[in-house]
């Protein structure tokens, strides 16, 4: 794992309420280059709220967000993208009737000059699509098949590759293996490892403890809006995760970083 510099993304004491509901309370989280951080917690723990905050969809009431050490306000999804943070939401937001290339460039099409034809732009986009798909070893029989005809793993692959078109430093994945079969799940875990090997910071929200244990370098546990535990690879047992999530016992400090 390469951790030559400080964190790519760092949240300090981030708090957010919805009406009277405490969604997040003074939550700290960071992700370094070449690191996979898993965010786990029961329903209502605050995972989606945290993802929305770092995606620029919601703003925190208090607390600080730093990107590469610089204090930042991620006021919109565009601002988050410009800061190098891209999110793949659970619904993937793919257009079923469009092909892989069209989906990859959806909303970020390469515009040719006024006199260059449509075919030229398509050619440029196809070349770039090939490159980004290859970088994650996403295999498609054809670039022009409507994505509705592809497997769940391939669709997740395309959604992740779309996030990579702008070469983000941080990629956030919301439940990337939910609703996938065993082999496609393994495929997606491989994609996550490749993102890490490319030196990106990866944040994965997941319900699946097995997936989390396989892929996470660090695990942040939220419960009722608060961060209740943090575990490092090799420094926890499966039951530690469950107890932290359910509040069965509060882990002591020496469980953090044991390896
Ligand atoms: N837009 C919203 N309006 C009101 N309450 C919300 C909203 N979004 C989330 N919440 C509440 O905030 C808490 C955290 O929710 P959420 O971040 O979705 O948790 P998780 O993704 O871990 O299930 C929950 O109590 C939820 O009901
Ligand atoms: Mg959620």
Commentary on this structure:
- With 259 residues, the protein is an alpha/beta fold.
- It has one domain (9-255): Rossmann fold, CATH 3.40.50.300.
- Helices cover 32% and strands 24% of the residues.
- The chain contains eight helices and ten strands.
- It has helices at residues 47-54, 77-82, 100-104, 118-135, 152-164, 182-197, 209-215, 238-246, and strands spanning 9-18, 21-31, 35-40, 62-67, 70-72, 85-88, 170-174, 201-205, 218-223, 226-232.
- Strands 6-7-8-3-9-10 form a six-stranded mixed beta sheet, with helices on both faces. The protein has a four-stranded antiparallel beta sheet with strand order 2-1-4-5, with helices on one face.
- The radius of gyration is 19 Å and the shape is globular.
- The protein starts with 8 loop residues before the first strand and ends in a 13-residue tail after the last helix.
- Adenosine-5'-diphosphate is lined by residues 18, 21, 23, 41, 43-49.
């Amino acid at each position: 794992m390469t951790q030559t510099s400080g964190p790519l993304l760092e949240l300090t004491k981030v708090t957010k309420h919805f009406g009277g509901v405490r969604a997040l309370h003074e939550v700290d989280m960071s992700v370094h280059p070449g690191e996979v951080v898993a965010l786990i917690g029961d329903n209502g723990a605050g995972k989606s709220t945290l993802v929305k905050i770092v995606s620029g969809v919601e703003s925190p009431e208090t607390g600080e967000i730093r990107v590469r050490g610089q204090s930042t306000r991620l006021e919109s999804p565009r601002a988050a993208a410009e800061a190098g943070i891209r999110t793949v939401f659970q619904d993937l937001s793919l257009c079923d009737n469009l092909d892989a290339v069209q989906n990859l460039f959806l909303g970020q099409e390469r515009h040719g000059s006024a006199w260059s034809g449509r075919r030229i732009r398509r050619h440029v986009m196809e070349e770039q699509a090939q490159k980004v798909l290859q970088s994650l070893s996403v295999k498609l029989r054809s670039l022009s098949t409507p994505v509705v005809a592809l497997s769940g793993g391939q669709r997740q692959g395309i959604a992740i590759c779309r996030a990579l078109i702008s070469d983000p430093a941080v990629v956030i994945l919301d439940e990337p293996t939910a609703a996938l079969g065993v082999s496609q799940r393994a495929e997606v875990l491989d994609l996550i490892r490749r993102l890490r090997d490319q030196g990106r910071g990866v944040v994965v929200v997941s319900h699946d403890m097995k997936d989390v244990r396989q892929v996470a370098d660090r695990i942040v546990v939220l419960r009722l809006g608060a961060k209740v535990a943090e575990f490092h690879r090799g420094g926890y047992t499966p039951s530690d995760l469950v107890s932290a999530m359910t509040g069965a016992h509060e882990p002591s400090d020496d469980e953090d970083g044991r390896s």
